[in-house]
Structures are given as C-alpha cells and as structure tokens.
Amino acid sequence: MISHKKYMDLAIKFAEKGRGLTSPNPLVGCIIVKRGRIVGKGWHKKAGTEHAEVLAIHDAGKKAINSTMYVNLEPCSHWGRTPPCTERIVEAGVREVIIGMNDPNPLVDGFKELKFRGLKTKIGILEKESKKLNEAYIKYMRTKRPFAIIKVAMSADGRIATKTGDSKYITSKEARAYVHELRTGVDAVMVGLNTVLRDNPELTPRLVKGKDPMKIVVDSHLKIPKNCSLMKDPAKLMIAATGKASKNDIKKLQQKGVTVIITKTRKGLVDLQDLMKQLGKHEIASVMIEGGSELNSSAIKEGVVDKILIFTAPKIIGNGLGAIGNLGIKTVDKAINLKNPVARKIGNDILIEGYL
Question: What is the spatial distance between Cα 146 and Cα 152, in angstroms, rounded to a whole number?
C-alpha cells in the first residue's frame, strides 16, 4: 500500500506542472511502474492536447506491457477533443490501473470501463489530495460556475489600507510573490471599480514566471478610466456591468477588444451570482477576487465564494479600510466559521486558508 501512495503522490506532483494551463480541463499526472521502476511519466499540458496517460504510455513504449499505471483522476472513456484514454491503456498492455479519484464529468466512466476490459483497477488512493488538487475543476464540472477564492492582504488589526487609502505594501515580498504564483494558476483575477480607481493595479504575475490571467472588473455603470493599466491589454480584460451602463460606452470598449458582460442587477449593482454563471459560459473555471472590502462582503453575502486566503502582516495601522465590509452579522455566534482552516508562515506574514 505504501508504494501505491508513493507513486500516486508523484503523479499528483506531475499533475501540478500543468497548473494554470489546462483549464477548463483538470490537472492530471500519470506514472507507469514496472517491477518497482518508473518506466513512463506524463502530465496534461494544455486543453486539447494529449492526456497524461497517453504521454506516459509514449514515454514507456514497450515497457508499458504488464505494468501498473498511477493516475490522479479517472481516465476518460469517451471521445472528446482526443480519443478515449481507456482504449490506449488497454492497447498498450497495461495490467493494473491505480486511480486517485472519480471524474465528476458524467461522460467519464473509465474505472468501470477498464474493469470491464479485464484490467485490475483500484480507485480512491490519496483521494483527499487528488480532490484538493482539482477543486476548481470539480466545482466547475458540477455547477458550470467558477471556483472562487477571496484573497485578502491585511495588517494584524484587519486593515487593507490606511485612512488615506494607501495600501502599498502591507504584506512582504514573499507573500506578494506567492499571490502572483496563485494568479498564474487561476483563469481570472477579479476586482471592483474602487480598487481600479484607488490602486490602478496591473494584476499580472510579474514577480514569477507563468501565465497571465484574465482580469475582471465589476463596474456597474462602466466608470472605468480609459487610461488605467488594465486597458493596456484589452484582450485580457472583462468588465461586468448592468443594463444601466451606456450603450455607447459598451460599444467603445468592445471596439477596443474588451469583453463586456451585462448582468442582472441586485440592489442596483452587478448581480454576482449571475456574473459567475456567465463567466462559466466563457469557460472561466477559477477566479481569485482581489477586491476591496465591498466586493469581498458582497461576494460572501451572495454565496459565490468557495475559499478564502487571508495574509496577515505583523503591522498595526489603526483607523483605515477594513478587509471585509458589512455582512449584517450582529452577534458573534452568527459569525462565519471557516471550514478546514490551515495557517502557515510566508515571509514574515501568516496565511490563513479556509473554505466557506
């Protein structure tokens, strides 16, 4: 059993290499083992390209005959952009397939298919780790809405900016580099108009190497400044507005190459539930909200948030902007308890990660 876990852990590490590049497909890694030696390895590099299992089979060549395959997600058994992996596994002569978790895609039934074809199969090895790796894919596959993370960088007394609005930089360079790494792993980063007006952010992962995500601005009346940093790359920009936005402004932005999404309204503002639904249709499977206190509280209240990351710096600011706006909570027993919270140190800061 120990070796099963060891090889599955390796498959998960290989899957990680595709982070940020495979969406809306899952992260998949595959290891082929024969007589205690790794003879093939592969990971899914990009949606539409060959799957991890096929790459590992290529790598193993004839050594795949009578081998054991480890893959963190159930192999596909249907024709999609590529042929089914189950066929290739059977053809290659693999004897046993060890799988991390079921694929939530209803079209995939690889576990049963392989069993039916006479292969020895086992599922649920490092299942918890496999599910965490693909938490965004699982949510997107089940709901067709993106997995949403709120990221907050605040002082020890819960401030994200001083009274004058200055917020550069509350957390350490290490924490900022970590956030940039997170940006490369999500499909989009989201802010509200206030953040654009106050900070004029770039929202790029410039401190690390990796993919630049889409930028989403929640801007009910299209008041975004035409010369802000985000306008430099209009193809990467999506603006969510309501029907109250001027048709002329919408047209001008679209001509520049910006994607404008018109949502239903909620209390006169962008309805975030509707926005998430529309982002899902644009194949945005994960989004990190890096907004101010208002966007953070609206997203929590409207029930669109799956996970929260709070970076806390050992600094005290006093009067200033709070991290999360009014949630309408009047007594402590009604406070939102984060599920499965984990705390760790990044640079001099503490990161608390939990699920809603």
Answer: 19
User: Tokens at residue 231, please?
Assistant: 């306008």
| Percent helix / strand / coil, the chain, rounded to 5 | 35, 25, 40
- Give the model's pLDDT for residue 195: 92
Give the residue among 300, 309, 281 at the shortest CA–CA distance from 145: 281
Q: Catalytic amino acids?
A: 53
- Confidence grade of residue 48 (pLDDT, cut at 50, 70, 90): confident
Residue 78 in this model has a pLDDT that exceeds 90: no
Q: Which two tokens stand for residue 165?
A: 């609005």
95-110 pLDDT, tens digit per residue, is 999 999 999 999 899 9
- Rounded CA-CA distance 151/148 in Å is 10
| Secondary structure class of 87 (helix, strand, coil) | helix
pTM recorded for the entire structure: 0.93
β-pairing verdict for 320-322 and 188-192: unpaired
Residue 109 · residue 67 · CB < 8 Å: no
Quote the CA–CA distance of 239 and 224 in Å, as a whole number.
9
- For residue 227, what are the CA distances in angstroms to 206, 223, 224, 230, 262? 20, 12, 9, 8, 22
Segment 167-217, tens digit of pLDDT: 888 999 999 999 999 999 999 999 999 999 988 999 999 999 999 999 999
Tokens of 184: 């490369």
H or E element, residue 99? strand 96-101
CB atoms within 10 A of CB 157: 13
Give pLDDT, residue 2.
57
d(CA 137, CA 130): 11
Cα–Cα distance for residue pair 201/198, rounded to 1 Å = 9
